[in-house]
């Protein structure tokens, strides 16, 4: 079997988070057309995803439909974006170009492509329900004041916004900025007096991060520890930006040791909302927890 002809070919761009999978099924009509599927990782150069560094595209990288005299079967393809490349950990989404190629397509051949993305196990979720633990979602790092790192895209939906006129939880501030971009959520449990410290940066440089915690799920209220009835700068923060870039933003929250005049004696679960203002593609968070002062 020779190379698939380039007579008829479809190319689509797709971006995957580290560990996220793309699963697709393609069939052709008429079914005597043989389909071949592969991913490119550069464009226009057209190199392919050689994650095993074999120098060739093996069966994990290039799939062709199997055919009999009467027709070809639909072809299924699955690709998981790596979390590590050449010994370096990857925390950013990667863009690929999916090529649906054919051998023997003629004018009038059409195709049907079904696809889905499958998030990496433990990846942050679009809403708080089912959100993974922050530690499960992250990977340990060394050589930094922080102990863990987490990175990926801001999700597919805008479900939370502190700006009350937007009508989404936590609805806790009357004036902008509006965290009107998409966001993802991870759960974090803190002992009384324990502090979560983190630093978030975004891609592209003009993407603006916004950060806050929820203390109920799915209701989406926020921890109003000072009882002000609004989320102040200690409870809701946005990165500061110039016209050329947004700075990485530090965020810190200490779980209270006292609530409504009573000592807090058990850990409290929060949902960390990794939100964005306007459009931002992806984020990276470095974080650690600091035990209560003795
Ligand atoms: Ca290979
Ligand atoms: Ca979301
Ligand atoms: Ca949002
Ligand atoms: Ca407040």
Q: What would your notes on this structure say?
A:
The protein has one helix at 134-137, and strands at 9-16, 21-29, 34-40, 62-64, 67-68, 71-72, 75-80, 84-85, 88-89, 94-103, 110-118, 139-140, 148-153, 161-163, 170-173, 184-190, 195-203, 208-214, 236-238, 249-254, 258-259, 262-263, 268-277, 282-290. It has two domains: 5-118, Jelly Rolls (Sandwich), CATH 2.60.120; 134-290, Jelly Rolls. The protein starts with 8 loop residues before the first strand and ends with a strand. Strand 5 (67-68) and strand 6 (71-72) form a beta hairpin. The relative contact order is 0.18. The strands form eight sheets. Strands 12-13-24-17-20 form a five-stranded antiparallel sheet. It has a four-stranded antiparallel sheet with strand order 1-10-3-4, with no helix packed on it. The chain is mostly beta strands and 294 residues long. It has one helix and 24 strands. Helix content is 1%, strand content 44%. Residues 1-7 have low confidence and may be disordered.
Number of helices: 1
Structural class: mainly beta
Spatially, the strands of the biggest sheet line up as 12-13-24-17-20
Would you count the extended β strands for me?
24
User: What's the shape?
Assistant: elongated
Quick check: average pLDDT?
A: 92
Give a topology summary.
Blueprint: E1 9-16, E2 21-29, E3 34-40, E4 62-64, E5 67-68, E6 71-72, E7 75-80, E8 84-85, E9 88-89, E10 94-103, E11 110-118, H1 134-137, E12 139-140, E13 148-153, E14 161-163, E15 170-173, E16 184-190, E17 195-203, E18 208-214, E19 236-238, E20 249-254, E21 258-259, E22 262-263, E23 268-277, E24 282-290
Parallel strand pairs: 14-15
Antiparallel strand pairs: 1-10, 2-7, 2-11, 3-4, 3-10, 5-6, 8-9, 12-13, 13-24, 16-23, 17-20, 17-24, 18-19, 18-23, 21-22
This protein binds calcium ion (4 copies).
